[in-house]
Amino acid sequence: MDNYDDLSPSEVNDLLRKWRENNERKSSDVVSLWMNVLQTHSNKYGNEKYVLLEQIIYAMLDCHLYGLAKGLIYVLSLEFPSSLRVMRYKAAALEAEEKYDEALNVLDVIINADETNAPARKRRVAVLKAQGLIHEAIKELADYLKKFMSDVEAWQELCELYLQVQEYSRAAFCAEELILHQPHNHLMHQRLADIRYTMGGIENMELAKTYYCQTLKLNPDNLRALLGLFLVANNLVGQYKSSGNSKRKEAWRLSQWAQSRVSAKQRQARAKLGLTDMMLSLSLAE
């Protein structure tokens, strides 16, 4: 932990706000700042107090301080007895303690009260996944995406879950949805190319080649896509038996191009490493 001893309560609050805005957890630091500085000043921050307390609760759960977290949740439940958000804190505490069935019951109450409560639905998927119930998590997440079709993170998670159970065609569908949402993200094209390559067969190999090429068009420095294109092109060369086949010639040219690009990047990496070693030895000699 960094040294925050000289910070005033207002400066600590500003620091915690900055971490929230940057999505930085820093849980042990947050708990320490709360215990040493903010605990006696929490009533001075107006409406921001409740956002601050949420940050503190999740930090305590991260640090396995379940008793302290439950104490804050209890205080909030007295102040907001019918708050679904406070109920989510209770579910999070139960989940952190691996009381998964109880956590699911609380989440079900939230969902029954508000079917559009996306965070509760996503936590339900996370609890099922933590229990190893992958097929149940897939079903839950697929139902969620019927209502929240623009949730990119959910499509990514569903893709990963399908890959875990080796349902590659459905994983490919999820990857295609991700490309529709983020057409200029080279990693999305690379993911779909990887899946198509894994599925095998000439048709999937041709699709993998197309998506690897698009990945490299978006990011020429994507080494994984270069290696993938090299493997796909070599595979297609073997698939197209006729030496005069135009597709075979195209696959051969792509294979040679990808191999030359990979070799060039390896030479660049070795040269950079050699320069770094030389600078290091010079600094040591001085």
UniProtKB/TrEMBL annotation:
Belongs to the EMC2 family. It comes from Papilio polytes. Component of the ER membrane protein complex (EMC). Keywords: Endoplasmic reticulum, Membrane, Repeat, TPR repeat. Part of the endoplasmic reticulum membrane protein complex (EMC) that enables the energy-independent insertion into endoplasmic reticulum membranes of newly synthesized membrane proteins. PANTHER family: TETRATRICOPEPTIDE REPEAT PROTEIN (PTHR12760). This is ER membrane protein complex subunit 2. GO terms for cellular component: EMC complex. It is a peripheral membrane protein. Gene3D superfamilies: Tetratricopeptide repeat domain. Residues 87-195 form the EMC2 TPR-like domain. It is found in: Endoplasmic reticulum membrane.
